[in-house]
Design brief:
It contains two helices and seven strands. It is α+β, with helices and mostly antiparallel strands and about 140 residues long. The longest helix is centred in the middle third of the chain and has 36 residues, at about 40-75.
Length: about 140
Amino acid sequence: MKYQFENDPPPRLIPKRKCACGCGNNFQPRRRDQIYINKQHADDYHNRKKQLVKKVDDEILRRNDRILEKLFHSGTLNPGFTQAYLELFFLQLKIKGFDHEINVVEENENGENCYYTYNHYYQIYKLPNSEIEMVRIFKR
């Protein structure tokens, strides 16, 4: 432990900084890596950030669902074993603005992935001996 003697320089203070939560308050940090005034400010910031991400994901899911709804009702449905489905090129979905990154994935009994939106789900597969991706759209 270091002791402060009369002729030693005073310990260097960490300069004041603005709280990173966006509240606009300045504070004197106690540690070099302290970026929030306290835990409450850090929690508020992270909760707002989570809500924003959730809201954006929700908007993307709703948009994807609207795209699937329009395509499902405008196309010719194929009769399936259990229910009717629409089959089309995956590129057609991408052209309409479909974002495949945000969805809920569930594997069915055949080992195929089903991607869910609010009112529809779809399966992506490749044509045999080809790299062309197709998609089957089902109504929930």
